Amino acid sequence: MHFEQLNKTGWAQTYLLVDSTSKSAAIIDPVYDFMDEYLSVIESKGVVLKYAIATHTHADHITACYSLRESTGCEYAMWKDTPCLGVSHYLNEEDVLMVGSLPLKVHHVPGHTNDHVLIESPTHLLTGDFLFTGEGGAGRDDLPSGRVHAHWLSLKRLDSLDGNLLVCTGHEPPGTEMKSLDWNREHNPVLNMNSFEEYSAWQEKVTAGLGSVSKIKSALPANLFAEIPEEIPWMN
Ligand SMILES: [Fe+2]
Q1: Which of 1, 69, 109, 131 would bridge with 127, disulfide CB 3.0–4.6 Å?
Q2: Ligand 1 geometric centre to CA of 170 (Å)
Q3: Spacing, Cα 28 to ligand 1 middle (Å)
Q4: What's the gap in Å between 141 CA and the centre of ligand 1?
Q5: 132-147 residues labelled b (16+ CB within 10 A) or e (exposed)
Q6: What angle is formed at CA 133 by the lines to CA 91 and CA 50, rounded to 5 degrees?
Q7: Where residue 175 falls among pLDDT bands split at 50, 70, 90?
Q8: Cα-to-centroid distance, 22 and ligand 1 (Å)
Q9: What is the pLDDT of residues 68-125, one digit of tens each?
Q10: How far is the C-alpha of 206 from the C-alpha of 200, rounded, in Å?
Q11: What is the pTM of this model?
């Protein structure tokens, strides 16, 4: 399997998984700003994009899933109850997407949003904004459809997963080294909390420090309606 984080700039992380034998590929959480780069990577590697998967309805960037579906004919996959339009493949709990011979298992983990999923490959766990690396903790739960208590309950979903899986998150400061689930079990504060009250207090403190999401007013409608705005303020 070939595994790669594609975005060269910014904090949003996009992952490409390629089954080396069949050259089938999946892209997880692609960002519209980097569409051209993704298309040239797909072409230069000679891979066939089977799935573009959004781990959840993103509020901080415009997804490239729908645009990739339009330009490559891949399936745009999201959790079955997502409000997003343009999705062509709806995911259910414990679904296994086959990318060539590479199985990608789906786990529903509502909290950051109610349509959030984890994608588990045999070696990597793609956590979107459900879980960040180490001190990063977890994504905020105060955005549309976010629920602090649901997120707390969803963290239990990790208990049954293999500690050797490498946790690949949706956001990290550039250059952050990916760590295993076991490492995160030791170093991630949200995986070391004993009560909902503790988690809820942590969320409150973290979200107060984050403030508003700068791109939300363009990104959220674009993602819900699968429509790229005529003008994208940060791309001019
Ligand atoms: Fe998010």
Answers
A1: 131
A2: 8
A3: 13
A4: 9
A5: bbbebbbbbbebebbb
A6: 30
A7: confident
A8: 31
A9: 999 999 999 999 999 999 999 999 999 999 999 999 999 999 999 999 999 999 999 9
A10: 10
A11: 0.97
Beta strands in 68-192 (DSSP E): 75-79, 89-91, 96-99, 102-108, 117-120, 124-128, 166-169, 179-180
Alpha-carbon distance of 146 to 153, in angstroms, equals: 13
Contact 141, 203 (CB under 8 A): yes
Q: Of how many residues is the chain composed?
A: 236
**Distance from the alpha carbon of residue 2 to the mean position of ligand 1, in angstroms:** 25
What are the chain's domains? Answer: 2-211 (3.60.15.10)
pLDDT surpassing 80 at residue 215? yes
Q: Ligand 1 centre from 99 Cα, in Å?
A: 25
In this structure, what are the phi and psi dihedrals at residue 119, rounded to the nearest 5 degrees?
-115, 120
